[in-house]
Structure formats: C-alpha cells, structure tokens
Amino acid sequence: MDSTQLYQRILGLPAPWQVSDVQINEISCEVVVRVTHTGHGLTCPTCKHAGNLHDHATMRRWRHLDTCQMATVIECCIPRVRCDEHGVLQLPVPWAGPKSRFTLMFESHAIDAMLLCPRSGAAELLGSSAHSLGRIAHRAVERGLARKEKSRADGKLAFPTGLSIDEKSWRGRRYATIIGDPVRGVIEDMLPGNGKGLLEQWFGRLDLSVRQAIEYVTMDFHKPFSSAVVATVPDAEDKIVHDKFHLVKAANDAMEQTRRSEMAKCRDKKDKDSEKLLKSTRFALLRSGTDLKEKYQDQVDMVDEWFQETGDAYRMKESIRQILSMTSVEEVSKRLMEWADWVKSSHMDPMKKVANLVVDRMKGILNIFRLRKSNANAESLNARIQAVRVKSRGHRNYGAFRRDILFHLGGLELHPVFPG
Q1: Are 309 and 353 members of one domain?
Q2: If DSSP states are collapsed to H, E and C, what string results for 178-233?
Q3: Which of 71, 141, 182, 203 has the largest CB neighbor count within 10 A?
C-alpha cells in the first residue's frame, strides 16, 4: 500500500474524491495531502440534479490531525458545477464543513481538547491559535443549538418541566440571566442582563402547552424574575419556588448591618473595647447556632449580654433558620407569620425589611415545602459557570461569554457528524 492509498483509507474519502499525491515538507514540518475530484457524477449541491463542470476554485488548505508529530494539511482545488437553475456553485467537500479551514476530524479533536483545558492550552497542544479554536467552538455551539431545536421539533427531546433562574455577573456589574434545567444539570438558555423584559419575551416565545406543562421555577428573590414568570406562565404563583439559602442570607445580611451600626455607635462614644469585641465576633455570629464550638458560643453569649440590638438580630436570624428546618407547610406558615410580627414590632429596620420580604413572598417560600424543590441546582450551575470564567480568563463581550458557557455547560451535541 503506497502513501496515496494509505491516506485515502485514513481520510475515508468516498469516490469520486481521491488522494492524488502525498508530500512531506521538512522545512515547515508538514505532510501535504493533495485531493482531487475525478469529475464523474457531478451534481448541483442544491437540487442534486446532474450538472456540468464549470471550473476549479483556487487551491485551498485544511488542517488535519497530525501524522507522526507533523502537521497534516489537505490541499484541493474544489470543482465548481454549473446548474441551469441555480447557476455556478462550488461542491461541498466530505472532509470539512463549509467555510472552515479545518477538517471535521481536527474540529472534533479540538472540541475534546477545549472541553478539558483552557483554550490557550489547547491551542498550544494542537499547534493552532486560540482565535482559530474560538471559531471552532463557535461553530460547535451553533451546531449543538440547531440539533437541540430540531430534536425538540421532532419530539425526541422534551422541554424541561422544571426550570431554575439565576443571575451571574460576567464582567464587573454586567449581568446575564441563566435559565437552567435542574434535572439534566445543564443550562437551557442565557439572556443578556437581569431585567424582566427579555425573560418575559423568552417565556412568551414558548408554546402555551409548554408553559402549562412547567411544574416549578426556582429562583432567588429578584423581583424582575418573579414578575416575568407571573406574567407568562399559567398558575405561576403555585410554581415559583424561592430558596432557603437566599432567605437565610438576607437575615444574615440584616444582622450584619445591625452589628456594624452598633459598632459605629461604640466608635462615636470612643468605646474602643466594645467596638473591638463586636468586630471580633463577626464570624461567630454568622455561623449556625446549632453545635457551635465552645469559643464561638462564648463570643455569642458575650454579645447577647452586652449588645442588645446585635443580640436580638442574632436571635431573629437563628429563629428563621430553625423555622426553615421544619417540614410541615402549615407549621412553617404559622411560624413565619409569627416571626414577621415579632420582627416588625422591633426597632431594627434591616430586619424589618426581611420580615416584609417574608410576607410579600410567603407563597414562594412555602412552595419549597409543598413542591420539595430548591434552587440548589442553580447555585451549582453558578459555581460551574465561575469555574469556566476562571478557565477562560474572562470574556470581552456577552456573546463570547454566552458561547463559552453553552459550549461547556449547555449539554449540547457539539461534535460534527462524519459523512458515511
């Protein structure tokens, strides 16, 4: 078997495409494989009717997988066919996609490399440029999204009946809305910004039957998210699930504001010992009150004894944590209303805001216990998104951020399909 037959087999070229020559360029460390078309069976790429050879396009080169540590390049002057109906068209080649400078096999290998390591590292490994690999990733995402849309249209891939909605900062204070599929653990879609309008449009584009089939939507307390879901999803108030974590976090933040306010009062009174004591107890107060270590418990007891406002805020924070550990919907509802009344009767404005939040979002909070769902999957996706951001060393614009996130976390079929 000579070199032309070897590469004919390696490339899997169907007739009438054939390898005509193989040369080794030792200066550039390349194996150059020249491919020609025999001219038989020419058909129009659009209508598939027989056509006549018009001419050959100028020589093009495609990067292929390496051969024995040498870059392999395919060269070909692609025939152009003249069709009576569609004019002069260039034939598609079986080893590469349209407008690509890489073969399908190289693109598939590059996708695997980019999934495993940063793009700059993959480029160094493959002897290519990060910019070129970025174009491969872009085509892979577009291909995956088209396949997902087709699978949905064919009924092979059902739309998720549960969704998670969260926001993620991708550059400074620039945000994106992340719509996740909690069951598959992938990102269903992404939208620029974190406002109501685009999310409402996204839900509005779904068929009514799809929106009716949605069983739950988990989210934090961001008002635009809940407003968009209520405006577009039938019976949304029975399907919106707020998260325990964000409610406890709100209570923690309110307690922290109270502690800082009391520290400022000590500072104004020139009471440095009290200020120092409050400052040193920050992390002890933020911890869960159950099973505190002895040193932290001593600090909490000291704060409760000497600082009334911070001590009351701590008890309020711990009370809501204990309420959320219950399982009975009726008991949780009763206890939360009692907690809100207790807080509203106090003089601490930060905690009153949390109480108002509880009352306003009571139904979404109770849906945690009715539907037995949480926003944990969205928070997990958020952590994985952050890992992709670190891996990519940041993104210059939203389009690059979206493509990169969908490439790694979209659950898409990225690899090209090989002919035959």
Answers
A1: yes
A2: EEEECCCCEEEEEEECCCHHHHHHHHHCCCHHHHHHCCEEEECCCHHHHHHHHHHC
A3: 182
